[in-house]
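Thread: Newbie trying to understand structure tokens

Hi all, I'm a second-year student working on a class project, and my supervisor (Dr. K.) asked me to get a predicted structure for one chain before our next meeting. I've only ever worked with sequences, so writing a 3D structure as a token string is new to me. If someone could post the tokens and maybe explain what I'm looking at, I'd be very grateful. Here's the chain:
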Amino acid sequence: MGRKSNRSGGGFVSFVKNALLFFGIVALIVIFSEPDQPTGSGSVEASQKNRTPWPFLNEAGGSEVGKELDQSNIYVVFDNSGSMIDQGCSGNQTKSDAAKNALQRFARDIPTATNLGLLVFDNYGISERLSLGLNNRNEFIKAVNQSKPGSGTPLKSSISIAYKKLTEQGRRQLGYGNYHLVVVTDGEASSGESPKQVVNDILKDSPIVFHTIGFCIRDNHSLNQAGKIIYKSAMNVKELQEGLKGVLAESEDFVLTDFKQGKP
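---
Reply by user tm_fold:
Sure, no problem. This is what the structure looks like when written as tokens:
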């Protein structure tokens, strides 16, 4: 009986050892065959955390670095939509002509060391009419004068293009310098062209200073966001000119932006 009992106990111990060995092997197989968890830039949170700040230099695609990194940049979006053919708030001339005259004076007053660019939406569609650059004031004035009032008000599309152009310039300047987006408009956006999201992205992700001059529309405009957008209501030609002068006052001093490579 004692020998039988010992054999039974030895068999049980052997069974337990084999079972433990078997389950241990299974556990190792499960561990090493489990898919890798996303880490580093593979996970959404890590990707957002590790993303290079504006102007997103890690996404630059080989942008050429400019010679002057501390330049100021002014990019104008000119609304010459169909309603600009009206004469409200502009005396005996159309709003289009009044805005053109104001933009001409504005261009001549911009310091020569400041990059200037222009996007227009008008009867010819929406497009950049002048890329950011120096010594282009005559070209700017010519492009403004050649625009013809017509069509709708695609604020979302135009502001998106302007943001892209300023970001490209930001890459060339490695994030240094300052950046101003100036929208001159006389009305609200066309259907499907609400600028709310792109404006929020600009204000959240970049150091771009956003200016809006509402011509003949008082203060009730979607781009009038106190504390975020510098908004000026221009109810006559003089106020329109003063609104543009205010842009120069904001941009004349160089400010080293915190939105550069290596900054959180």
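A couple of things are worth pointing out once you decode it. The longest strand covers residues 125-133. The radius of gyration is 30 Å. Feel free to ask follow-ups in this thread.
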